[in-house]
Amino acid sequence: MTSKLTSKQRAYLKSIAVNLNSISQIGKDSVTPENVAAIEEAFHTRELIKISVLKNCADDPRTIAETVAERTRSQVVQVIGRKFVLYRPDKEQPKIILPASDKRREK
To answer: Which of 19, 74, 79, 101 is the most buried (most CB within 10 A)?
Structure first.
């Protein structure tokens, strides 16, 4: 997994996520292997994805976001209501260029 996002980087990703539509929904069965597989597949073409937690899901959206992030090796950008945003940069060709972090990255 990448290093932890700084507040500046998180704010930048949030600004991009405002215009995103949800690409997946978590329903009454909560996080299933099928959900995780679909989200993993989405990360092949996107670096930033928004997911909705349906009202019939009894689990806490923040807990779900953290579980999905852990299983997809991504990071939770934000959780607002019943939606959350995950970020995972492409290893070969990142499309989203984050603002510089406070620490210099070594390659």
So the answer is: 74
pLDDT (tens digit per residue) in 66-86? 999 999 999 999 999 999 999
Shortest CA distance to 23 belongs to which of 74, 58, 59?
74
- For residue 103, the SS3 value is coil
Q: CA 43, CA 41: separation in Å to the nearest integer?
A: 5
**Distance, CA of 46 to CA of 90 (rounded, Å):** 8
Q: Which two tokens stand for residue 50?
A: 């928004």
* CA atoms of 97 and 30, how far apart (whole Å): 32
Query: Per this entry, what is the length of the chain?
Result: 107
* H or E element that contains 23: strand 22-26
Sign for the CA dihedral angle at 16, 18, 21, 26 comes to positive
Helix axis angle for 61-72 and 33-42, nearest 10°, is 60
| pLDDT, tens only, 47-62 | 999 999 999 999 999 9
